[in-house]
UniProtKB/TrEMBL annotation:
Membrane-spanning parts: 20-42, 62-83, 126-149, 155-175, 238-261
Pfam families: ABC_membrane, ABC_tran
Name of the protein in question: Cyclic peptide export ABC transporter
UniProt source species: Acidisoma cellulosilyticum
InterPro entries (alphabetical): AAA+_ATPase, ABC1_TM_dom, ABC1_TM_sf, ABC_transporter-like_ATP-bd, Cyc_pep_transpt_SyrD/YojI, P-loop_NTPase, Type_1_exporter
Record-annotated ABC transmembrane type-1 domain positions: 22-298
Protein backbone atom coordinates (compact mmCIF):
# COMPACT_ATOMS: atom_id res chain seq x y z
CA UNK A 1 0.00 0.00 0.00
CA UNK A 2 1.43 3.41 -0.94
CA UNK A 3 1.71 6.23 1.61
CA UNK A 4 -1.14 8.05 -0.08
CA UNK A 5 -3.53 5.11 0.02
CA UNK A 6 -2.52 4.47 3.67
CA UNK A 7 -3.43 8.10 4.41
CA UNK A 8 -6.77 7.77 2.63
CA UNK A 9 -7.49 4.50 4.44
CA UNK A 10 -6.61 6.06 7.81
CA UNK A 11 -8.71 9.11 6.98
CA UNK A 12 -11.72 6.94 6.05
CA UNK A 13 -11.45 5.13 9.40
CA UNK A 14 -11.16 8.46 11.23
CA UNK A 15 -14.26 9.83 9.52
CA UNK A 16 -16.33 6.71 10.24
CA UNK A 17 -14.98 5.94 13.74
CA UNK A 18 -17.60 7.93 15.73
CA UNK A 19 -20.34 5.87 14.08
CA UNK A 20 -19.12 2.36 14.97
CA UNK A 21 -21.30 1.95 18.11
CA UNK A 22 -24.55 2.81 16.34
CA UNK A 23 -23.57 0.76 13.24
CA UNK A 24 -22.75 -2.22 15.43
CA UNK A 25 -25.94 -1.90 17.47
CA UNK A 26 -28.12 -1.63 14.33
CA UNK A 27 -26.33 -4.58 12.72
CA UNK A 28 -26.71 -6.78 15.82
CA UNK A 29 -30.42 -5.95 16.11
CA UNK A 30 -30.85 -6.57 12.37
CA UNK A 31 -28.99 -9.88 12.63
CA UNK A 32 -31.25 -10.98 15.50
CA UNK A 33 -34.26 -10.19 13.27
CA UNK A 34 -32.71 -12.16 10.39
CA UNK A 35 -31.96 -15.20 12.54
CA UNK A 36 -35.51 -15.05 13.94
CA UNK A 37 -36.88 -15.05 10.37
CA UNK A 38 -34.91 -18.17 9.38
CA UNK A 39 -35.92 -19.86 12.63
CA UNK A 40 -39.52 -18.96 11.90
CA UNK A 41 -39.30 -20.77 8.55
CA UNK A 42 -37.95 -23.85 10.26
CA UNK A 43 -40.76 -23.70 12.85
CA UNK A 44 -43.41 -23.29 10.14
CA UNK A 45 -42.02 -26.28 8.22
CA UNK A 46 -41.91 -28.40 11.38
CA UNK A 47 -45.45 -27.49 12.39
CA UNK A 48 -46.73 -28.20 8.86
CA UNK A 49 -45.27 -31.71 8.96
CA UNK A 50 -45.89 -32.57 12.63
CA UNK A 51 -49.41 -33.82 11.87
CA UNK A 52 -50.53 -32.66 15.33
CA UNK A 53 -52.57 -29.74 16.57
CA UNK A 54 -50.55 -26.64 17.50
CA UNK A 55 -49.55 -26.41 21.15
CA UNK A 56 -49.53 -23.19 23.15
CA UNK A 57 -45.74 -23.37 23.17
CA UNK A 58 -45.64 -23.51 19.35
CA UNK A 59 -48.03 -20.57 19.09
CA UNK A 60 -45.98 -18.59 21.61
CA UNK A 61 -42.74 -19.45 19.80
CA UNK A 62 -44.32 -18.45 16.48
CA UNK A 63 -45.47 -15.09 17.90
CA UNK A 64 -42.13 -14.39 19.58
CA UNK A 65 -40.21 -15.15 16.39
CA UNK A 66 -42.60 -12.99 14.32
CA UNK A 67 -42.09 -10.15 16.79
CA UNK A 68 -38.29 -10.53 16.82
CA UNK A 69 -38.21 -10.70 13.03
CA UNK A 70 -40.30 -7.57 12.42
CA UNK A 71 -38.94 -5.53 15.35
CA UNK A 72 -35.35 -6.53 14.50
CA UNK A 73 -35.57 -5.20 10.98
CA UNK A 74 -37.56 -2.12 12.10
CA UNK A 75 -35.01 -1.15 14.79
CA UNK A 76 -32.09 -1.85 12.47
CA UNK A 77 -33.77 0.42 9.89
CA UNK A 78 -34.30 3.21 12.43
CA UNK A 79 -30.71 2.84 13.71
CA UNK A 80 -29.30 3.10 10.24
CA UNK A 81 -31.48 6.08 9.33
CA UNK A 82 -30.13 7.91 12.39
CA UNK A 83 -26.62 6.82 11.40
CA UNK A 84 -27.11 8.06 7.83
CA UNK A 85 -28.37 11.48 8.91
CA UNK A 86 -25.65 11.91 11.54
CA UNK A 87 -23.03 10.84 9.05
CA UNK A 88 -24.19 13.44 6.50
CA UNK A 89 -24.10 16.20 9.13
CA UNK A 90 -20.77 15.14 10.62
CA UNK A 91 -19.01 14.73 7.26
CA UNK A 92 -20.25 18.12 6.03
CA UNK A 93 -19.14 19.84 9.24
CA UNK A 94 -15.79 18.04 9.40
CA UNK A 95 -14.85 18.75 5.79
CA UNK A 96 -16.06 22.37 6.00
CA UNK A 97 -13.94 22.91 9.13
CA UNK A 98 -10.91 21.53 7.31
CA UNK A 99 -11.58 23.73 4.29
CA UNK A 100 -11.84 26.73 6.63
CA UNK A 101 -8.54 25.87 8.28
CA UNK A 102 -6.70 25.17 5.03
CA UNK A 103 -4.12 27.65 3.80
CA UNK A 104 -5.51 29.86 1.04
CA UNK A 105 -2.87 28.77 -1.49
CA UNK A 106 -3.96 25.12 -1.17
CA UNK A 107 -7.61 26.05 -1.38
CA UNK A 108 -6.96 28.06 -4.54
CA UNK A 109 -5.44 24.95 -6.12
CA UNK A 110 -8.61 22.94 -5.48
CA UNK A 111 -11.34 23.89 -7.90
CA UNK A 112 -14.49 25.03 -6.09
CA UNK A 113 -16.77 22.82 -8.20
CA UNK A 114 -14.76 19.78 -7.06
CA UNK A 115 -15.19 20.79 -3.42
CA UNK A 116 -18.92 21.24 -4.01
CA UNK A 117 -19.20 17.79 -5.61
CA UNK A 118 -17.51 16.21 -2.56
CA UNK A 119 -19.60 18.16 -0.05
CA UNK A 120 -22.89 17.33 -1.76
CA UNK A 121 -22.82 14.32 -4.08
CA UNK A 122 -20.14 12.21 -2.33
CA UNK A 123 -21.47 12.80 1.17
CA UNK A 124 -24.98 11.86 0.01
CA UNK A 125 -23.70 8.70 -1.69
CA UNK A 126 -21.89 7.52 1.44
CA UNK A 127 -24.90 8.16 3.62
CA UNK A 128 -27.23 6.41 1.13
CA UNK A 129 -25.09 3.31 1.64
CA UNK A 130 -25.46 3.58 5.40
CA UNK A 131 -29.27 3.75 5.02
CA UNK A 132 -29.06 0.43 3.19
CA UNK A 133 -26.83 -1.15 5.86
CA UNK A 134 -29.74 -2.38 7.99
CA UNK A 135 -31.18 -4.20 4.97
CA UNK A 136 -27.82 -5.92 4.40
CA UNK A 137 -27.50 -6.86 8.08
CA UNK A 138 -30.93 -8.44 8.15
CA UNK A 139 -30.49 -10.14 4.75
CA UNK A 140 -27.06 -11.49 5.60
CA UNK A 141 -28.34 -12.89 8.89
CA UNK A 142 -31.30 -14.55 7.11
CA UNK A 143 -28.96 -16.10 4.51
CA UNK A 144 -26.49 -17.38 7.13
CA UNK A 145 -29.24 -18.73 9.40
CA UNK A 146 -30.95 -20.33 6.39
CA UNK A 147 -27.73 -22.11 5.53
CA UNK A 148 -27.39 -23.35 9.09
CA UNK A 149 -30.92 -24.73 8.82
CA UNK A 150 -30.15 -26.34 5.45
CA UNK A 151 -27.08 -28.00 6.94
CA UNK A 152 -29.27 -29.24 9.77
CA UNK A 153 -31.72 -30.68 7.19
CA UNK A 154 -29.17 -32.34 4.91
CA UNK A 155 -25.47 -31.93 4.11
CA UNK A 156 -26.23 -32.63 0.44
CA UNK A 157 -28.84 -29.88 0.17
CA UNK A 158 -26.50 -27.54 2.00
CA UNK A 159 -23.75 -28.33 -0.55
CA UNK A 160 -26.19 -27.72 -3.43
CA UNK A 161 -27.24 -24.35 -1.92
CA UNK A 162 -23.57 -23.44 -1.30
CA UNK A 163 -22.67 -24.09 -4.96
CA UNK A 164 -25.67 -22.04 -6.15
CA UNK A 165 -24.84 -19.14 -3.80
CA UNK A 166 -21.12 -19.37 -4.66
CA UNK A 167 -21.92 -19.03 -8.37
CA UNK A 168 -24.22 -16.09 -7.60
CA UNK A 169 -21.49 -14.41 -5.55
CA UNK A 170 -18.94 -14.83 -8.38
CA UNK A 171 -21.38 -13.35 -10.94
CA UNK A 172 -22.07 -10.40 -8.65
CA UNK A 173 -18.42 -9.79 -7.83
CA UNK A 174 -17.64 -9.61 -11.56
CA UNK A 175 -20.52 -7.16 -12.08
CA UNK A 176 -19.36 -5.10 -9.10
CA UNK A 177 -15.80 -4.88 -10.45
CA UNK A 178 -17.06 -3.59 -13.78
CA UNK A 179 -19.27 -1.05 -12.00
CA UNK A 180 -16.47 0.13 -9.72
CA UNK A 181 -14.31 0.88 -12.75
CA UNK A 182 -17.18 2.73 -14.40
CA UNK A 183 -18.11 4.64 -11.28
CA UNK A 184 -14.69 6.33 -11.16
CA UNK A 185 -15.56 7.75 -14.61
CA UNK A 186 -19.05 8.67 -13.36
CA UNK A 187 -17.48 10.72 -10.56
CA UNK A 188 -15.13 12.51 -12.97
CA UNK A 189 -18.13 13.28 -15.19
CA UNK A 190 -20.00 14.55 -12.07
CA UNK A 191 -17.17 17.04 -11.45
CA UNK A 192 -17.46 18.19 -15.08
CA UNK A 193 -21.20 18.56 -14.63
CA UNK A 194 -20.77 20.67 -11.47
CA UNK A 195 -18.34 22.88 -13.37
CA UNK A 196 -20.89 23.47 -16.13
CA UNK A 197 -23.72 24.03 -13.60
CA UNK A 198 -21.56 26.80 -12.15
CA UNK A 199 -21.09 28.28 -15.61
CA UNK A 200 -24.91 28.34 -16.04
CA UNK A 201 -25.34 30.78 -13.16
CA UNK A 202 -22.01 32.58 -12.91
CA UNK A 203 -21.62 32.96 -16.66
CA UNK A 204 -25.28 33.82 -17.25
CA UNK A 205 -24.53 37.12 -19.00
CA UNK A 206 -21.82 35.75 -21.28
CA UNK A 207 -23.94 32.74 -22.18
CA UNK A 208 -26.83 34.92 -23.23
CA UNK A 209 -24.60 37.07 -25.38
CA UNK A 210 -22.79 34.28 -27.18
CA UNK A 211 -24.71 31.64 -29.08
CA UNK A 212 -21.48 29.75 -29.80
CA UNK A 213 -20.49 29.68 -26.13
CA UNK A 214 -24.03 28.70 -25.13
CA UNK A 215 -24.15 25.77 -27.48
CA UNK A 216 -20.64 24.69 -26.45
CA UNK A 217 -21.61 24.74 -22.76
CA UNK A 218 -25.01 23.13 -23.17
CA UNK A 219 -24.72 20.85 -26.18
CA UNK A 220 -21.13 19.77 -25.80
CA UNK A 221 -19.83 20.08 -22.26
CA UNK A 222 -22.93 19.83 -20.06
CA UNK A 223 -24.83 17.36 -22.22
CA UNK A 224 -21.61 15.43 -22.81
CA UNK A 225 -21.06 14.94 -19.07
CA UNK A 226 -24.76 14.20 -18.43
CA UNK A 227 -24.87 11.67 -21.29
CA UNK A 228 -21.66 10.00 -20.13
CA UNK A 229 -23.17 9.52 -16.66
CA UNK A 230 -26.43 8.19 -18.14
CA UNK A 231 -24.58 5.76 -20.41
CA UNK A 232 -22.29 4.44 -17.69
CA UNK A 233 -25.07 4.13 -15.13
CA UNK A 234 -27.44 2.46 -17.59
CA UNK A 235 -24.75 -0.03 -18.55
CA UNK A 236 -24.00 -0.72 -14.90
CA UNK A 237 -27.67 -1.13 -13.99
CA UNK A 238 -28.19 -3.49 -16.94
CA UNK A 239 -25.20 -5.50 -15.80
CA UNK A 240 -26.55 -5.65 -12.29
CA UNK A 241 -30.00 -6.75 -13.31
CA UNK A 242 -28.45 -9.51 -15.41
CA UNK A 243 -26.28 -10.55 -12.47
CA UNK A 244 -29.22 -10.32 -10.09
CA UNK A 245 -31.51 -12.33 -12.36
CA UNK A 246 -28.81 -14.96 -12.96
CA UNK A 247 -28.03 -15.39 -9.28
CA UNK A 248 -31.66 -15.52 -8.12
CA UNK A 249 -32.52 -17.78 -11.09
CA UNK A 250 -29.91 -20.20 -9.76
CA UNK A 251 -32.11 -20.70 -6.69
CA UNK A 252 -34.92 -21.90 -8.94
CA UNK A 253 -32.42 -24.29 -10.54
CA UNK A 254 -31.56 -25.60 -7.06
CA UNK A 255 -35.28 -26.01 -6.19
CA UNK A 256 -35.84 -27.78 -9.57
CA UNK A 257 -32.95 -30.17 -8.90
CA UNK A 258 -34.40 -30.95 -5.46
CA UNK A 259 -37.86 -31.63 -6.85
CA UNK A 260 -36.52 -33.80 -9.67
CA UNK A 261 -34.13 -35.75 -7.49
CA UNK A 262 -36.26 -36.07 -4.37
CA UNK A 263 -36.90 -39.77 -4.90
CA UNK A 264 -33.34 -40.74 -5.74
CA UNK A 265 -32.00 -38.70 -2.81
CA UNK A 266 -34.21 -40.67 -0.37
CA UNK A 267 -34.98 -37.58 1.68
CA UNK A 268 -38.07 -37.16 3.82
CA UNK A 269 -40.80 -34.85 2.46
CA UNK A 270 -40.34 -32.60 5.53
CA UNK A 271 -36.68 -32.12 4.59
CA UNK A 272 -37.47 -31.38 0.93
CA UNK A 273 -40.29 -28.94 1.75
CA UNK A 274 -38.14 -27.23 4.43
CA UNK A 275 -35.31 -26.83 1.95
CA UNK A 276 -37.63 -25.54 -0.79
CA UNK A 277 -39.23 -23.09 1.64
CA UNK A 278 -35.85 -21.77 2.80
CA UNK A 279 -34.36 -21.61 -0.71
CA UNK A 280 -37.32 -19.69 -2.07
CA UNK A 281 -37.34 -17.36 0.92
CA UNK A 282 -33.56 -16.78 0.91
CA UNK A 283 -33.75 -15.76 -2.75
CA UNK A 284 -35.16 -12.37 -1.62
CA UNK A 285 -32.41 -11.47 0.87
CA UNK A 286 -29.70 -12.74 -1.52
CA UNK A 287 -31.17 -10.50 -4.23
CA UNK A 288 -31.27 -7.60 -1.79
CA UNK A 289 -27.57 -8.00 -1.01
CA UNK A 290 -26.78 -8.23 -4.72
CA UNK A 291 -28.88 -5.15 -5.52
CA UNK A 292 -27.14 -3.19 -2.80
CA UNK A 293 -23.71 -3.81 -4.28
CA UNK A 294 -23.80 -0.82 -6.68
CA UNK A 295 -24.65 1.48 -3.75
CA UNK A 296 -21.75 0.00 -1.81
CA UNK A 297 -19.35 0.38 -4.75
CA UNK A 298 -20.39 4.01 -5.23
CA UNK A 299 -20.02 4.65 -1.52
CA UNK A 300 -16.52 3.19 -1.59
CA UNK A 301 -15.46 5.52 -4.44
CA UNK A 302 -17.14 8.51 -2.80
CA UNK A 303 -15.64 7.76 0.60
CA UNK A 304 -12.23 7.63 -1.06
CA UNK A 305 -12.85 11.08 -2.56
CA UNK A 306 -14.01 12.49 0.77
CA UNK A 307 -11.03 10.93 2.53
CA UNK A 308 -8.61 12.26 -0.13
CA UNK A 309 -9.92 15.79 0.30
CA UNK A 310 -9.92 15.45 4.06
CA UNK A 311 -6.36 14.03 4.03
CA UNK A 312 -5.21 16.86 1.71
CA UNK A 313 -6.32 19.36 4.33
CA UNK A 314 -5.36 17.23 7.33
CA UNK A 315 -2.14 18.82 8.57
CA UNK A 316 -3.30 22.39 8.39
CA UNK A 317 -3.02 25.08 10.99
CA UNK A 318 -6.04 24.26 13.12
CA UNK A 319 -5.47 27.43 15.12
CA UNK A 320 -8.43 28.92 13.25
CA UNK A 321 -10.57 27.19 15.88
CA UNK A 322 -8.24 27.83 18.80
CA UNK A 323 -8.95 31.53 19.28
CA UNK A 324 -5.44 32.60 20.23
CA UNK A 325 -5.15 36.01 21.91
CA UNK A 326 -4.80 38.87 19.44
CA UNK A 327 -1.37 40.18 18.55
CA UNK A 328 -0.25 43.63 19.58
CA UNK A 329 1.00 45.90 16.80
CA UNK A 330 2.45 49.16 18.11
CA UNK A 331 5.10 50.31 15.67
CA UNK A 332 5.68 48.43 12.47
CA UNK A 333 5.35 45.29 10.41
CA UNK A 334 8.38 44.18 8.42
CA UNK A 335 8.69 41.79 5.51
CA UNK A 336 12.30 40.61 5.57
CA UNK A 337 13.58 38.93 2.41
CA UNK A 338 10.07 37.63 1.71
CA UNK A 339 9.55 35.55 -1.43
CA UNK A 340 6.59 33.78 -2.87
CA UNK A 341 6.83 31.23 -5.58
CA UNK A 342 3.86 30.00 -7.63
CA UNK A 343 6.05 27.27 -9.14
CA UNK A 344 4.36 23.90 -8.82
CA UNK A 345 5.15 20.41 -10.12
CA UNK A 346 8.38 21.69 -11.64
CA UNK A 347 6.54 24.21 -13.85
CA UNK A 348 8.00 27.69 -13.57
CA UNK A 349 5.49 30.18 -12.21
CA UNK A 350 5.46 33.77 -11.08
CA UNK A 351 7.96 34.66 -8.35
CA UNK A 352 7.43 37.59 -6.02
CA UNK A 353 10.39 39.05 -4.17
CA UNK A 354 12.65 39.04 -2.37
CA UNK A 355 10.79 41.90 -0.73
CA UNK A 356 12.14 44.01 2.11
CA UNK A 357 9.48 46.36 3.37
CA UNK A 358 8.51 48.03 6.63
CA UNK A 359 5.02 49.42 7.18
CA UNK A 360 4.76 51.94 10.00
CA UNK A 361 1.73 52.24 12.19
CA UNK A 362 -0.54 55.04 11.03
CA UNK A 363 1.00 55.51 7.59
CA UNK A 364 -0.90 55.49 4.31
CA UNK A 365 0.86 53.44 1.69
CA UNK A 366 -0.24 53.23 -1.94
CA UNK A 367 0.78 50.18 -3.92
CA UNK A 368 0.96 50.67 -7.66
CA UNK A 369 2.13 48.69 -10.69
CA UNK A 370 0.87 47.15 -13.92
CA UNK A 371 -1.41 44.13 -14.25
CA UNK A 372 0.29 40.97 -13.04
CA UNK A 373 3.13 42.89 -11.34
CA UNK A 374 2.41 41.10 -8.04
CA UNK A 375 0.40 43.64 -6.00
CA UNK A 376 -2.30 41.18 -4.86
CA UNK A 377 0.30 38.48 -4.16
CA UNK A 378 2.28 40.92 -2.00
CA UNK A 379 -0.93 41.85 -0.15
CA UNK A 380 -1.80 38.19 0.44
CA UNK A 381 1.66 37.68 1.93
CA UNK A 382 1.47 40.81 4.05
CA UNK A 383 -1.98 39.84 5.36
CA UNK A 384 -0.75 36.35 6.27
CA UNK A 385 -2.96 34.66 3.68
CA UNK A 386 0.03 33.11 1.87
CA UNK A 387 2.95 31.60 3.75
CA UNK A 388 6.22 33.04 2.39
CA UNK A 389 8.32 30.54 0.46
CA UNK A 390 11.34 32.28 2.00
CA UNK A 391 11.96 35.15 4.41
CA UNK A 392 10.00 36.19 7.46
CA UNK A 393 7.41 38.58 8.82
CA UNK A 394 8.21 40.62 11.93
CA UNK A 395 5.70 42.46 14.11
CA UNK A 396 7.33 45.27 16.09
CA UNK A 397 10.70 43.68 15.33
CA UNK A 398 9.73 40.19 16.56
CA UNK A 399 9.36 37.33 14.08
CA UNK A 400 5.84 35.98 13.90
CA UNK A 401 5.76 32.89 16.14
CA UNK A 402 4.67 29.58 14.61
CA UNK A 403 0.95 29.04 15.01
CA UNK A 404 0.22 32.76 15.34
CA UNK A 405 -0.82 33.21 11.71
CA UNK A 406 -4.52 33.47 12.46
CA UNK A 407 -3.96 35.94 15.32
CA UNK A 408 -1.76 37.96 12.94
CA UNK A 409 -4.47 38.01 10.27
CA UNK A 410 -6.87 39.59 12.79
CA UNK A 411 -4.80 42.80 12.57
CA UNK A 412 -6.21 43.46 9.10
CA UNK A 413 -9.51 44.21 7.50
CA UNK A 414 -9.65 44.25 3.74
CA UNK A 415 -11.77 44.81 0.69
CA UNK A 416 -10.23 42.70 -2.06
CA UNK A 417 -10.92 43.37 -5.72
CA UNK A 418 -12.62 39.92 -5.83
CA UNK A 419 -14.26 40.39 -2.41
CA UNK A 420 -17.15 38.29 -1.15
CA UNK A 421 -20.06 40.32 0.19
CA UNK A 422 -21.59 38.83 3.34
CA UNK A 423 -25.13 40.04 3.84
CA UNK A 424 -25.07 39.97 7.64
CA UNK A 425 -23.08 41.91 10.23
CA UNK A 426 -20.64 39.86 12.31
CA UNK A 427 -21.65 41.80 15.41
CA UNK A 428 -25.13 43.26 15.39
CA UNK A 429 -25.24 45.13 18.72
CA UNK A 430 -26.81 48.58 18.98
CA UNK A 431 -23.53 50.46 18.53
CA UNK A 432 -22.50 48.47 15.41
CA UNK A 433 -25.93 48.87 13.82
CA UNK A 434 -25.83 52.62 14.54
CA UNK A 435 -22.37 52.87 12.97
CA UNK A 436 -23.48 50.83 9.96
CA UNK A 437 -26.52 53.08 9.50
CA UNK A 438 -24.28 56.11 9.72
CA UNK A 439 -22.05 54.70 6.98
CA UNK A 440 -25.03 53.77 4.81
CA UNK A 441 -25.96 57.47 4.97
CA UNK A 442 -22.45 58.66 4.25
CA UNK A 443 -22.02 56.26 1.37
CA UNK A 444 -25.36 57.41 -0.05
CA UNK A 445 -27.07 54.04 -0.09
CA UNK A 446 -29.38 54.41 2.92
CA UNK A 447 -32.28 54.98 0.52
CA UNK A 448 -31.68 51.47 -0.87
CA UNK A 449 -30.35 49.47 2.05
CA UNK A 450 -31.31 49.33 5.70
CA UNK A 451 -30.18 47.02 8.48
CA UNK A 452 -32.83 44.55 9.53
CA UNK A 453 -32.16 41.87 12.17
CA UNK A 454 -28.42 42.39 11.77
CA UNK A 455 -28.58 41.96 7.99
CA UNK A 456 -28.44 44.27 5.02
CA UNK A 457 -32.02 44.44 3.71
CA UNK A 458 -30.69 43.78 0.20
CA UNK A 459 -27.42 43.22 -1.63
CA UNK A 460 -29.04 43.44 -5.07
CA UNK A 461 -27.19 46.62 -5.93
CA UNK A 462 -24.84 48.05 -8.52
CA UNK A 463 -21.19 46.90 -8.50
CA UNK A 464 -20.07 50.19 -6.93
CA UNK A 465 -22.84 50.11 -4.31
CA UNK A 466 -22.03 46.53 -3.31
CA UNK A 467 -18.43 47.58 -2.79
CA UNK A 468 -19.66 50.32 -0.45
CA UNK A 469 -21.31 47.63 1.68
CA UNK A 470 -18.03 45.70 1.71
CA UNK A 471 -16.34 48.87 2.98
CA UNK A 472 -18.88 49.08 5.82
CA UNK A 473 -17.98 45.52 6.86
CA UNK A 474 -14.28 46.43 6.84
CA UNK A 475 -14.92 49.58 8.87
CA UNK A 476 -17.04 47.80 11.49
CA UNK A 477 -14.30 45.24 12.08
CA UNK A 478 -12.23 48.09 13.53
CA UNK A 479 -8.80 46.56 12.87
CA UNK A 480 -5.58 48.60 13.06
CA UNK A 481 -4.68 48.00 9.40
CA UNK A 482 -7.07 48.40 6.48
CA UNK A 483 -6.38 47.30 2.92
CA UNK A 484 -8.32 48.36 -0.16
CA UNK A 485 -7.60 46.66 -3.48
CA UNK A 486 -8.73 49.11 -6.16
CA UNK A 487 -11.81 49.97 -4.12
CA UNK A 488 -12.42 53.19 -6.00
CA UNK A 489 -12.21 51.59 -9.45
CA UNK A 490 -15.97 50.89 -9.54
CA UNK A 491 -17.05 54.25 -8.08
CA UNK A 492 -18.19 57.35 -9.96
CA UNK A 493 -15.78 60.34 -10.02
CA UNK A 494 -17.52 62.09 -7.11
CA UNK A 495 -17.37 59.04 -4.91
CA UNK A 496 -13.85 58.29 -5.99
CA UNK A 497 -12.88 61.74 -4.78
CA UNK A 498 -14.81 61.26 -1.54
CA UNK A 499 -13.00 57.94 -0.97
CA UNK A 500 -9.49 59.34 -1.44
CA UNK A 501 -9.91 62.77 0.10
CA UNK A 502 -12.47 62.18 2.86
CA UNK A 503 -12.82 58.51 3.80
CA UNK A 504 -9.10 57.71 3.75
CA UNK A 505 -8.32 60.97 5.57
CA UNK A 506 -10.86 60.16 8.26
CA UNK A 507 -9.55 56.61 8.71
CA UNK A 508 -6.00 57.96 8.92
CA UNK A 509 -7.14 60.50 11.52
CA UNK A 510 -8.50 57.58 13.55
CA UNK A 511 -4.99 56.13 13.56
CA UNK A 512 -5.56 53.38 10.96
CA UNK A 513 -2.67 52.13 8.88
CA UNK A 514 -3.88 52.17 5.28
CA UNK A 515 -2.66 50.10 2.37
CA UNK A 516 -4.29 51.06 -0.89
CA UNK A 517 -3.80 49.38 -4.24
CA UNK A 518 -4.55 52.07 -6.76
CA UNK A 519 -4.26 53.15 -10.36
CA UNK A 520 -5.64 56.66 -9.63
CA UNK A 521 -2.48 58.73 -10.09
CA UNK A 522 -4.53 61.89 -9.46
CA UNK A 523 -4.59 60.92 -5.78
CA UNK A 524 -1.10 59.47 -5.25
CA UNK A 525 -0.08 62.71 -3.49
CA UNK A 526 -2.46 61.81 -0.64
CA UNK A 527 -0.28 58.85 0.37
CA UNK A 528 2.67 59.01 2.76
CA UNK A 529 4.50 56.58 0.51
CA UNK A 530 3.97 55.13 -2.94
CA UNK A 531 5.53 51.76 -3.75
CA UNK A 532 5.76 50.57 -7.31
CA UNK A 533 5.94 46.89 -8.18
CA UNK A 534 7.15 45.40 -11.43
CA UNK A 535 7.66 41.70 -12.16
CA UNK A 536 7.37 40.83 -8.48
CA UNK A 537 9.91 43.37 -7.24
CA UNK A 538 9.65 46.80 -5.64
CA UNK A 539 11.16 48.98 -8.35
CA UNK A 540 10.36 52.40 -6.97
CA UNK A 541 9.55 53.92 -3.61
CA UNK A 542 8.46 57.55 -3.29
CA UNK A 543 7.94 59.27 0.01
CA UNK A 544 5.43 62.06 -0.36
CA UNK A 545 6.33 65.24 1.40
CA UNK A 546 3.14 67.08 2.34
CA UNK A 547 2.86 70.49 0.75
CA UNK A 548 3.47 73.24 3.34
CA UNK A 549 0.32 74.88 4.52
CA UNK A 550 0.04 78.21 2.70
CA UNK A 551 0.03 81.25 4.94
CA UNK A 552 -3.17 83.31 4.86
CA UNK A 553 -2.87 86.10 2.35
CA UNK A 554 -2.05 89.54 3.84
CA UNK A 555 -4.33 92.31 2.85
N1 LIG B 1 -3.21 31.25 -7.86
C1 LIG B 1 -2.19 31.49 -8.72
N2 LIG B 1 -1.50 30.46 -9.24
C2 LIG B 1 -0.47 30.69 -10.07
N3 LIG B 1 -0.06 31.92 -10.47
C3 LIG B 1 -0.72 32.98 -9.99
C4 LIG B 1 -1.82 32.82 -9.09
N4 LIG B 1 -2.27 34.05 -8.76
C5 LIG B 1 -1.50 34.93 -9.43
N5 LIG B 1 -0.57 34.30 -10.16
C6 LIG B 1 0.47 34.90 -11.00
O1 LIG B 1 1.09 35.91 -10.24
C7 LIG B 1 1.27 37.07 -11.01
C8 LIG B 1 0.93 38.28 -10.14
O2 LIG B 1 -0.45 38.26 -9.89
P1 LIG B 1 -1.13 39.35 -8.96
O3 LIG B 1 -2.56 39.01 -8.87
O4 LIG B 1 -0.35 39.46 -7.69
O5 LIG B 1 -0.91 40.66 -9.83
P2 LIG B 1 -1.53 42.12 -9.64
O6 LIG B 1 -0.39 43.06 -9.69
O7 LIG B 1 -2.41 42.15 -8.43
O8 LIG B 1 -2.39 42.21 -10.98
P3 LIG B 1 -3.77 43.01 -11.24
O9 LIG B 1 -3.48 44.48 -11.22
O10 LIG B 1 -4.12 42.54 -12.61
O11 LIG B 1 -4.73 42.58 -10.20
C9 LIG B 1 0.41 36.95 -12.24
O12 LIG B 1 1.22 37.12 -13.37
C10 LIG B 1 -0.15 35.56 -12.21
O13 LIG B 1 0.29 34.86 -13.34
Amino acid sequence: MTDQSMNIYRESLRLLRPFWPITLAATIVGAIGGIATAWLLAEINRDLHSGQALTWQSILRFLTLCLLSTLGSAFAGIGNSILGQRLIGALRKDISARILAAPLAELEQQRSYRLMAVLTSDVDTVSAATFALSGYGVSLAIVIASFVYLLHLSALIFALAAVVTGLGVVINILARRAWQRDYEHVRTATDDLQKQFRALTEGAKELRLSRARRSRVHDLLLSGAADRITKLKTRAMGLFWIADTASSGLFFVAVGILLLAQNSLHLEPAVISGAVLVLLYARGPVGQIANGLPTMSQAQVSLRRIATLSADFADQDREIHRRLPSLAFDHDITLRGVRYDFTSDGATGFVLGPIDLTIHRGETMFLIGGNGSGKTTLIKLLLGLYRPTAGSILVDGTPLPAGAEDAYRQLFSAVFSDYFLFDDLTVADKASVAQANDWLDRLEISHKVTIRDGQFSTTDLSTGQRKRLALIHAYLEDRPIMMFDEWAADQDPTFRRIFYTEILAELKAQGKTLIVISHDDRYFHLADRVLKLDSGLIVDETTIVPAPATAPEMR
